[in-house]
Amino acid sequence: MALQRLLPVSLLVAQALGAAYPVITPAPSLEDRDEALKRDIDPGSYIGSIINSLGSGVSSYIASGVPQFFQDFPIGEDVEKALDIDDDDLKATPTQVLNIPGYANWTESGWSVRIHGNVFKQPNITQEKLDSLANKFLIGVDINDLPENQQDQARNFTASIFVVQQQNVSVTVNFQNDVNVRPDASGGVVNAKGGAQSIDLPYNTTSEGDFDAWLTLRNTTGPNGGHLLAGNATEQIQALNIYTNGTDTGNATAYLVPPTGFTIISDIDDILRVTKIYDPKEGLLNSFARPFVAWEDMPDIYANWSATIPNFHFHYLTTTPEQVTRNYMDFIYKTYPLGSFDTRPLNFSDVSATLSIRKALLDKIFQTFPQRKFVLVADTSNSDVMKDYPQMVRDFPGQVQCIFLRNTTATDSSDLFPYDTSGFKGIDQKQYMFFVNADDLRGVDIVGGNCYNPAVKQNVTFEYQGRGFGNDAGRAIDWSWMTLYAGLLVTLGQVLL
Ligand SMILES: *[C@@H]1O[C@H](CO)[C@@H](O)[C@H](O)[C@H]1NC(C)=O
Ligand SMILES: *[C@@H]1O[C@H](CO)[C@@H](O)[C@H](O)[C@H]1NC(C)=O
Ligand SMILES: *[C@@H]1O[C@H](CO)[C@@H](O)[C@H](O)[C@H]1NC(C)=O
Ligand SMILES: *[C@@H]1O[C@H](CO)[C@@H](O)[C@H](O)[C@H]1NC(C)=O
Ligand SMILES: *[C@@H]1O[C@H](CO)[C@@H](O)[C@H](O)[C@H]1NC(C)=O
Ligand SMILES: *[C@@H]1O[C@H](CO)[C@@H](O)[C@H](O)[C@H]1NC(C)=O
Ligand SMILES: *[C@@H]1O[C@H](CO)[C@@H](O)[C@H](O)[C@H]1NC(C)=O
Ligand SMILES: *[C@@H]1O[C@H](CO)[C@@H](O)[C@H](O)[C@H]1NC(C)=O
Ligand SMILES: *[C@@H]1O[C@H](CO)[C@@H](O)[C@H](O)[C@H]1NC(C)=O
Ligand SMILES: *[C@@H]1O[C@H](CO)[C@@H](O)[C@H](O)[C@H]1NC(C)=O
Ligand SMILES: *[C@@H]1O[C@H](CO)[C@@H](O)[C@H](O)[C@H]1NC(C)=O
Ligand SMILES: *[C@@H]1O[C@H](CO)[C@@H](O)[C@H](O)[C@H]1NC(C)=O
């Protein structure tokens, strides 16, 4: 990546510091970028021109916090174009289904379960081509310079991005009460004793290959006369396996969650694993190549909560694109308590929707469980979290029990992104905590509603803060991440050509 050809750093700094830190505006659409690149404009000056035009999307996006740099994965025809795929070859490859573990609520007609995921084909990509595609995601390092296990991971990750979504296909799922939850493996999760049945989803996949539907489960009798427990007759979370007809790739588990109790909604990057999303070069290596690593002793904290908070429902919500969900689930289920999952669906792939997807997913789970109380966990480097989490307190009165945000700036000098704490103004201090180390969470009392551990030094100014914003004025600021980020936008844009 030739950084030199990118815009002068001073321009970025002037923009970032001079702007009034507006609310994020959507970045320019992918089409615009695509068009501009097609017109053979030098990428450096293209980004420069965007940053230059005051109030433009990218400048406010950069100024407002960490970008979701995985926002522009290619979909549909772009994949076929990039790979020069032969239609007949593709037809011959098996159809696969990503079925994402969902939750169910108790309604007047019984258990209503959310089934979501997508249908795709995995083209046969030569290693040479895969390597060249993988290199576009890595900054300043060639895939061949990585250790062998990291090369494999990078190829795996890249292959899972370059899949061809299958639109307008029907999906049939098959529920089986054959989960084998180890006793005490996860809070109050128990195996459902009935409920086996096959159901056709009410509509075909969208043009992006997505499906997201609610199905009502019949109360079928299982072996030994077992049956599903009614939601108002149990506090426990029942687990039911889901298989997808026609493929063995669409397996998942559904969690039948009673109307009352506590649910934790946890982000993953930089809270459950070390990503350094605010440091693009590292962030990409940590996502594409290196094995996922848990952050500090969060696994112990979650294991303890799972064991001590009765029937605690775990829900993992990340805005990472759906294509790489398997890698995330693989890590989470090996490291953290079992639970349902949400990632960014493909029909939310365009850049403007990226900024509202977290709120949409949060609203959905809050509306599904109007009597449950929620614990929200993430870190300060997500600008959408900083806005959406406190907004949930206002939009759903009484439903937010605790908000825990890891202060990434405090432990990581490479995090130079400012973050906005103004959303917390007026919220009871007992309801939230900005913490530094995972162990800070040991002193909180979730069930009792004492979410702030007074031993933790916290300084919420209800405005933009972070390095270079008065909190750490003495430091020399290295704005080179901005050029890296600008470079990254170009990189991902080019993948599409
Ligand atoms: C449990 O829920 C069902 C369905 O909503 C309802 O018919 C039944 O009366 C409820 N039972 C109790 C004890 O609330
Ligand atoms: C993929 O393509 C290579 C040659 O390009 C071929 O040797 C291999 O058998 C193919 N694999 C599958 C699963 O079709
Ligand atoms: C990548 O690895 C995951 C986890 O091991 C596996 O489930 C998946 O099939 C692999 N994907 C590809 C495209 O090879
Ligand atoms: C879906 O496929 C069916 C059968 O091939 C076809 O009749 C229908 O028009 C298609 N719908 C869309 C939206 O493409
Ligand atoms: C749904 O897809 C199936 C093929 O998977 C097709 O036969 C059917 O006509 C489609 N239904 C509609 C309503 O488009
Ligand atoms: C299923 O039926 C059994 C036996 O009639 C009943 O005890 C149980 O509450 C029912 N469960 C649901 C989910 O309706
Ligand atoms: C799906 O699989 C189940 C279980 O094997 C079977 O009972 C059902 O008929 C299948 N449905 C379709 C539409 O293939
Ligand atoms: C899905 O479940 C089926 C039936 O238990 C099993 O044969 C298959 O290996 C599973 N698929 C994966 C990817 O684990
Ligand atoms: C169950 O979830 C659906 C979908 O979010 C929601 O519309 C409905 O109100 C919920 N039902 C109850 C009883 O909470
Ligand atoms: C485990 O969690 C409980 C609250 O659920 C808390 O009181 C206790 O201090 C925690 N223990 C450890 C070792 O973190
Ligand atoms: C985060 O940590 C930094 C460095 O210790 C500190 O200056 C800042 O005030 C903290 N932010 C919050 C919200 O506590
Ligand atoms: C909190 O941060 C503000 C600016 O961000 C700073 O002026 C103030 O001195 C800090 N307060 C403490 C107690 O550290």
UniProtKB/TrEMBL annotation:
Any GO molecular function: phosphatidate phosphatase activity
Key word ATP-binding present: no
InterPro entries membership: APP1_cat, Mg2+_PAP
Annotated keywords: Signal
Signal sequence, renumbered to the chain: 1-18
Boundaries of every Phosphatidate phosphatase APP1 catalytic domain copy: 262-407
Pfam families tied to this protein: APP1_cat
Cellular component aspect of the GO annotation: actin cortical patch
Official protein name in the record: Phosphatidate phosphatase APP1 catalytic domain-containing protein
Species whose genome carries this gene: Xylaria flabelliformis
